[in-house]
Specification:
Layout: E1 3-10, E2 14-23, E3 26-36, H1 41-49, E4 58-63, E5 73-74, H2 77-88, E6 95-100, E7 105-110, E8 116-120, H3 129-137, H4 143-150, H5 164-176, H6 181-197, E9 208-212, H7 219-230, E10 235-236, H8 246-255, H9 269-272, E11 301-302, E12 312-318, E13 322-329, E14 335-341, H10 342-346, E15 357-359
Parallel strand pairs: 1-4, 4-5, 6-9, 9-10
Antiparallel strand pairs: 1-2, 2-3, 6-7, 7-8, 11-15, 12-13, 13-14, 14-15
Helix pairs in contact: 2-8, 4-6, 6-7
């Protein structure tokens, strides 16, 4: 029996659609399409569906961060990647998949024996395509333009990839000092690689590595990851021409196994799209309801004494938006604290000094 299916990957920035047919255990991809949805996945899906061939036994499945906008069979991200990589890279039994998308990144290890290991980034945005896009826009550039500018930069600026707040601050300082943009952007791209590669287990991961996701299409990203892998006896697999829709291909394969089909009259895209009435937002009580649990500890103002000879230990914590100071007298252990925020500095015409110490 001829089977007809559509696999859809609705990501944070892009909708990808793959149409497949299967007959007598054969698997043929008949159409591949994608569209940037610009925060309106409904419109993008409507446009992509307009070219779908209507048949009586059509099956539909969906995956991705925004997959709930479509009322169809849901496929988890890990399952979509697993099935997709097995279809496109059939000659590799043991493989590690690194995916870097617009809103997240993950690592999936697949062994021929059936063992798997999956890890994805936390809620922090660092290392994602959206984060990269926001930072290069500060230079008035697109991700593609920034990628071309820093591609061959031999001397990238040293930037930490662990915290997006610190990374933004460092980039701002370097730009204000007049540092060359190619060095700053090269440091940014390398920091993204550093953050993503923290999920890879060099001694345990399968040696063959496949890169997928929009961010991995940047030449510098692929080259930096490839060099990192090479130094750890891992190998970057040559890119397959369909790797950019690997998840959607995996979803389409799962769709072929669904029992539910959509005949022509029911394939009205408006009937498949989830509306705002179907979406529920999580709500939490207002913070003012918890004011009774807040306890204010009054602090006394301590004036500096010029006749004091007691030794004092000072501790300073200087952050990107504020600084804190703690002074502790060695003789009696009395401690004093002061805090200075960025807004305090901006409101003063001269360099700000710490305000009077409060005893704690």
């Amino acid at each position: 029996m001829d089977k007809h299916a559509i696999g859809i990957d609705v990501g944070a920035e892009t909708v990808k659609l793959v149409e497949v047919r299967s007959q007598n255990d054969t698997f043929e991809i008949t159409r591949i399409d994608s569209m940037i949805h610009r925060k309106n996945p409904h419109a993008a899906l409507s446009s992509l569906f307009s070219a779908v061939e209507r048949t009586d036994n059509l099956r539909i499945a969906v995956a991705g961060r925004l997959s709930r906008v479509l009322q169809a069979g849901q496929v988890p991200t890990k399952a979509a990647i697993r099935r997709g990589v097995r279809l496109l890279h059939k000659d590799i039994d043991d493989v590690t998949v690194i995916s870097i998308g617009a809103h997240g990144f993950c690592v999936l290890e697949l062994c021929g024996s059936g063992q798997e290991w999956f890890q994805q980034n936390s809620r922090c945005s660092q290392g994602t395509g959206n984060f990269l896009s926001q930072l290069v826009e500060r230079f008035g550039m697109t991700v593609e333009e920034a990628s071309a500018l820093c591609d061959s930069e031999p001397n990238p600026a040293a930037l930490s990839g662990r915290c997006p707040v610190i990374l933004k601050t460092d980039m701002t300082h370097l730009a204000n000092k007049g540092e060359d943009r190619s060095r700053i952007l090269a440091g940014l791209y390398d920091a993204v690689c550093e953050n993503v590669l923290s999920l890879v287990r060099p001694r345990l991961a399968p040696p063959n590595v496949v890169l997928i996701g929009g961010v991995t299409r940047a030449p510098r990203i692929r080259r930096q990851i490839g060099q990192w892998l090479h130094h750890r006896n891992l190998r970057l697999v040559d890119e397959h021409r369909q790797d950019h829709v690997l998840e959607a291909i995996g979803v389409a394969s799962y769709a072929l196994e669904l029992k539910e089909t959509f005949n022509e009259p029911a394939l009205d895209i408006r009937s498949l799209l989830a509306t705002s009435h179907d979406t529920k937002l999580e709500r939490t009580p207002a913070l003012r309801r918890s004011l009774s649990s807040v306890h204010h500890i009054p602090g006394s103002i301590i004036h500096a004494r010029t006749d004091s000879i007691s030794p004092v230990i000072l501790g300073l914590d200087i952050g990107s938006t504020g600084s804190k100071l703690v002074a502790t007298e060695i003789d009696n252990g009395a401690s004093f604290i002061s805090q200075l925020t960025l807004s305090d500095c901006l409101c003063q015409a001269k360099p700000a000094a710490f305000p009077k110490l409060k005893k704690i």
